[in-house]
């Protein structure tokens, strides 16, 4: 099997059979090719407390999984209530090429609370959870899984410190009328609290601002403790020039950032899984890109230089469903839509629509 390391993925697909996993056709390796690693033992129980929120509760370690040839392997630390066979699995951490993950009390608590809401388990209640590692090459191949370890976890209750919603209003966004359908409901950054984003086309002469409610209730704001990428005048925010911008409202660090928007395709429809490799092109007040590979799933995300190279692209992911742009937000994997090669994808962020032609 050593020759496999030199065979392109496309040829490998011809040598393998295909299975369907959650509407995703993936190449499945023969057992002789793919070998799952082993998840090391962990503590038998964890009592999570808010006073240690930023401390590391556990550094999970595992051995490498192999697929018969050299490739960057994505490892996901998965958890579900014990005995549920990972039917409602949640991802604690996702890493490429690394075989350990240091997880804080807060990170683990947030994931377990999400599971507990499904199973109607109250906070501060001890319950047993199954944990494993899935290993795959991007999202192309069917994952292999390590052994499952079971531990008891007691969560702590989280009192919301930040708004659940942030809205943006302005001359371009609802005409300063909170009841208008064009007021922007910003999207939560996946897996976070108190951080919101949106991409829109802005007119430089038109002001805008934000609020946590759709109302002139005195809570509206045009800046926080710090800001970057825009100016203010007479209680409103302004961009320097007409164009597409990504807005990042970070209530956690009390900062608003407005930068030129970068929107990308991702995955098999475009030929690969490298971040920043398949940019959309600006066409007036819309953005377009053309797919290159037939019968693959369309995935897209928004980015910007201020996120940094370690940013997980799926935190700002979105898709097109029934002609509408649908944002992932704080939810899990979205419904998948397959497209052909040579299809032009057009996004109108201000109208909230997308086409595949």
Report on this model:
The protein is mainly beta and 357 residues long. The chain has 2 helices and 30 strands. The model is unreliable at 1-26 (pLDDT under 50).
List the helices and strands and how they pair.
Layout: H1 9-15, E1 17-21, E2 24-28, E3 45-47, E4 56-61, E5 74-81, E6 90-96, E7 100-104, H2 105-119, E8 126-136, E9 144-145, E10 149-154, E11 167-170, E12 184-185, E13 187-188, E14 195-202, E15 208-211, E16 226-228, E17 231-233, E18 236-238, E19 243-250, E20 255-260, E21 262-266, E22 281-283, E23 286-290, E24 296-297, E25 299-303, E26 317-321, E27 324-327, E28 338-339, E29 344-348, E30 353-356
Parallel strand pairs: 3-10, 16-20
Antiparallel strand pairs: 1-2, 4-7, 5-6, 5-8, 8-9, 8-10, 11-12, 11-15, 13-14, 14-19, 17-18, 19-20, 21-25, 22-23, 23-29, 24-28, 25-26, 26-27, 29-30
Helix proportion: under 10%
Shape: globular
Number of helices: 2
Main sheet specs? 6 strands, mixed
Total count of strands: 30
End-to-end separation: 41 Å
Radius of gyration: 22 Å
Q: What is the average of the pLDDT values?
A: 88
Poorly predicted regions: 1-26
- Taken as a percent bin, the fraction of beta residues is 35-45%
Q: Look at the helices and sheets and give the structural class.
A: mainly beta
């Amino acid at each position: 099997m050593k020759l496999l390391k030199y065979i392109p993925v496309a040829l490998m697909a011809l040598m393998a059979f295909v299975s369907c996993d959650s509407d995703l056709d993936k190449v499945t390796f023969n057992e002789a090719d793919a070998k799952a690693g082993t998840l090391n033992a962990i503590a038998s129980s964890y009592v999570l407390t808010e006073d240690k929120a930023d401390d590391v509760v556990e550094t999970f370690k595992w051995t490498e999984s192999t697929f018969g040839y050299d490739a960057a392997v994505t490892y996901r630390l998965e958890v579900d209530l014990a005995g549920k066979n990972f039917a409602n699995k949640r991802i604690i951490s996702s890493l490429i090429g690394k075989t350990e993950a240091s997880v804080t009390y807060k990170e683990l608590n947030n994931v377990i609370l999400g599971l507990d809401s499904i199973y109607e388990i109250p906070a501060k209640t001890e319950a047993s959870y199954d944990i494993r590692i899935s290993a795959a090459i991007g999202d192309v191949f069917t994952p292999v899984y390590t052994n499952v370890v079971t531990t008891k976890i007691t969560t702590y209750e989280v009192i919301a410190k930040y708004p659940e919603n942030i809205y943006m209003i302005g001359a371009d966004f609802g005409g300063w009328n909170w009841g208008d359908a064009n007021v922007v409901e910003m999207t939560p950054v996946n897996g976070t609290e108190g951080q919101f984003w949106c991409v829109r086309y802005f007119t430089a002469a038109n002001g805008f601002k934000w609020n946590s409610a759709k109302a002139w209730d005195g809570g509206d704001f045009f800046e926080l403790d710090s800001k970057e990428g825009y100016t203010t005048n007479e209680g409103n925010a302004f961009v320097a020039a007409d164009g597409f911008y990504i807005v990042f409202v970070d209530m956690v660090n009390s900062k608003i950032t407005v930068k030129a928007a970068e929107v990308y395709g991702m995955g098999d429809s475009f030929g690969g899984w490298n971040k920043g490799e398949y940019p959309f092109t600006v066409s007036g007040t819309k953005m377009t890109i053309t797919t290159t590979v037939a019968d693959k799933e369309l995935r897209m995300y928004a980015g910007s230089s201020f996120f940094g190279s370690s940013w997980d692209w799926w935190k700002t992911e979105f898709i097109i469903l029934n002609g509408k742009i649908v944002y992932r937000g704080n939810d899990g994997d979205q419904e998948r839509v397959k497209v052909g090669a040579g299809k032009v994808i057009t996004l109108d962020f201000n109208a909230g629509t997308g086409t595949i032609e």
